[in-house]
Amino acid sequence: MRRLALQRANQELRHMREAYECLRIAQNFDQAERYWSGFLDAHQRVYNRLSAGKTGHPASVRWMIDKLRERRDDPLLQYLHQARHADEHGLVRIAEPDLLGQLHVPLGAGGMHVQRIELGPGRTVRLEATSLSGEPVAASAAFTIIHLRVVAVENRGVRYDTPEDHLGRVLTRGSLIEICHCALEYTRTLLSDANRLIAD
């Protein structure tokens, strides 16, 4: 493995970390989506740098073949790879907003029954509620995007569901933060292993 390739791959790991930290504090869906896309791009570039650095080093070539096979076979790693390709080459979004709602009830209303909550375009909310005695209550609801939820992606006509496990570890389906955390841990280990192959 060429030393320069590992240096460049470590730079991409830093970009992954930066995107992850920005993703955790994103203020809106567009920001979060942009950081998720950046995370996926940096993750892909780690593999690109390592692949470029293996050339001319037989032990590194064998190691890289094993790591590419692991990426193909592991649900999380394959999802990251395919989500990046779907984002880069496709038209469909690779994440959806997760919504957090707040219900505002007028003072003195006491308990109430909510019969119906409808979410409309532009985060509009229609709420039907009655007091415990059956009188209509003027309550309102507001919903704010708090983070993204990953969704199944399609690349070249093949569907890739959100990962449920990674190297034997069970994942919460759709949890973007958990996916990023696992990917960061894996990439740190990947680069540590690659460091042992430095030849020049």
Explain the layout of strands and helices:
Elements: H1 3-24, H2 29-54, H3 58-73, H4 75-89, E1 95-104, E2 112-119, E3 125-131, E4 140-150, E5 153-155, E6 158-160, E7 165-166, E8 169-170, H5 176-195
Antiparallel strand pairs: 1-4, 2-3, 5-6, 7-8
Helix pairs in contact: 1-2, 1-5, 2-3, 2-4, 2-5, 3-4
Describe the largest sheet. Answer: 2 strands, antiparallel
Mean pLDDT: 85
Order of helices and strands: HHHHEEEEEEEEH
Q: How many beta-strand runs?
A: 8
Total helical segments? 5
Strand content: 15-25%
Weakly predicted, low-confidence segments = none
The Cα radius of gyration reads 22 Å
Span of the ends, CA to CA? 7 Å
Shape by Cα distribution:
elongated
The residue fraction in helices comes out at 40-55%
Strand order, largest beta sheet: 1-4
Q: Give the assembly state of these chains.
A: single chain
Task: Find the structural class using helix and strand composition.
Answer: alpha+beta
